[in-house]
Design brief:
Elements lengths: L3 H16 L7 H5 L3 H5 L4 H6 L6 E5 L5 H10 L5 E6 L2 H10 L6 E5 L13 E6 L8 H14 E12 L21 H10 L3 E10 L2 E11 L7
Parallel strand pairs: 1-2, 1-4, 2-3, 4-5
Antiparallel strand pairs: 5-7, 6-7
The structure holds S-adenosylmethionine.
Length: 226
């Protein structure tokens, strides 16, 4: 039988090796011009985000902190605690300069496969924009399992992920808009295996490619045996 610790450390190595491309990338400056898209009344990002209880909120893969900063400046009165995680220390340092420190804010480097050191059952909501679309599917699976651990019963997570399922073995950088192999149905399967439930799921175009991306709003059931 496969050793779960070995699988976990192998997936963590994949996450670390794939994240290297983001260190010092020009992406961060370019992306600032598009932040409005995630927070526009017109788009499903915001439609779903509004459904989250953001009292104890975590942002996964925060990059240079454009979304965390937006949340604090627009909805800070509803947030008791915001945790911002990124696999790269350089991004944590950037965010600390940009936003922190503040008393209700933790900005941390994480393993790339889970939310440690966040405590079990301590978050009302998680969101991740424009990052999981690039994650290896085993990394996504690992985060979904850990989502089950860190959410309070009834807590929800909003994940922007890839819906590109044409080439399972192709490295993400070789795919359109660097989307990793994933599909709405595979994501839903991982959600169910983690003991979570998909509340809403919607594919949408990115660039000029129809249905390249997907938004999944998922929930930890109010009572769970897992
Ligand atoms: C395209 S950037 C998006 C940053 C931010 N979400 C935004 O919208 O501006 C991708 C981010 O994912 C982070 N990242 C990559 N792999 C990761 C992983 N396995 N776990 C956590 N963060 C990761 C990178 O360091 C980078 O900050």
């Amino acid at each position: 039988m496969a050793n779960p610790d070995l699988i976990h450390s192998t997936v963590a190595q994949v996450a670390k090796s794939e994240a290297v491309v983001w260190d010092g990338s020009k992406y961060y400056d370019d992306a600032e011009a598009w932040t409005w898209l995630f927070w526009s009344e017109e788009h499903d990002f915001f439609k779903y985000f509004r459904q989250l209880d953001i009292k104890n909120l975590l942002e996964l893969a925060c990059g240079h902190g454009r979304h965390g900063e937006y949340v604090l400046s627009h909805y800070g009165d509803r947030v008791d605690r915001l945790v911002m995680l990124d696999i790269l220390q350089s991004n944590v340092d950037f965010c600390l300069q940009r936003i922190g420190p503040r008393k209700n804010l933790e900005i941390r480097c994480n393993s790339g496969v889970g939310f440690q050191p966040v405590a079990d059952g301590s978050l009302t909501a998680i969101f991740c924009y424009d990052a999981m679309v690039h994650f290896h599917h085993e990394v996504v699976k690992s985060y979904l399992n850990d989502t089950q651990r860190v959410l309070v019963p009834g807590g929800m997570a909003l994940f922007h992920h890839s819906n590109y399922s044409l080439k399972p073995d192709s490295p993400f950088g070789a795919n359109p808009h660097a989307r990793a192999y994933m599909s709405a149905s595979l994501f839903e399967q991982y959600v169910k295996e983690a003991g979570l439930v998909v509340m809403e799921q919607k594919s949408f175009s990115w660039g000029d490619i129809p249905d390249l991306d997907c938004l999944s709003l998922i929930k930890k059931p109010a009572s769970t045996s897992k």
